[in-house]
Design a protein that fits this description.
heterodimer; A: alpha+beta; Heat Shock Protein 90; 3 helices; 5 strands; 27% strand; B: alpha/beta; Transcription Regulator spoIIAA; five-stranded mixed β-sheet; 36% helix; globular
Chain lengths: 128, 105
Amino acid sequence: MKPLDTVSVIVPSKPEYVSVVRLTASGIASRMGFDIDDIEDIKVSISEVINRMIDKRISSDGIRIDFRLYSDLIRIDFRLSGSSPRDIFESEEDNFAFEIIRSLMDEVNLNRDDSVLLSMIKKLERAV
Amino acid sequence: MFELVLGSNGGSEKVIFLRGEIDIYSAPDFKDNLFQAMGDCREDIVLDCSELSYIDSMGLGIMVAALKRARQNDSNIKIRDPRPNVKKLFKITGLDKVFIMEELK
């Protein structure tokens, strides 16, 4: 299914830019109508992925994050520039981070065969 | 932005105030400042988290390392007044059972 809108961000693979992505995610999720708890979940999950990517130095050309906006959910794809996908959750510490993401997001998929390293989904639960 | 402020010593506890965000960028400063502030761990450490707006696994890992160090010296670490988003992370990681969670406010 085609998203209503897509917002893409490419940041250098450096710790000082993680907060920039968090702020971007916060703005997008807020505009979509996510509540403050869900926005915090998204912010932490994004950081956990980017932290691992920076920590393992798997991308020299930057980290690309695509925010795909649907009417009832947001899908966030993490792509690598200039590098092939690798499993970024291999150590015990990485598992700890991965479990946090799985707890906070509705769906998490590790894709090892194409340029999308990881994609995760948060569903928008509107009050009835 | 992150800031660590050492409060006044109150008897058997040393209160350390955490403010702002602890992420991959501020984590090295947090670790250095926390371990320095803890000193020789002669008293229990209270981490006042009422003004801590963000933390992720990088910060939690440092807190666990600090707890190990405290326990080696027969002291403990209390997490005081965490905000709901911070408290949630302690809960989903099970660290709310490892640290002493304290709510005064």
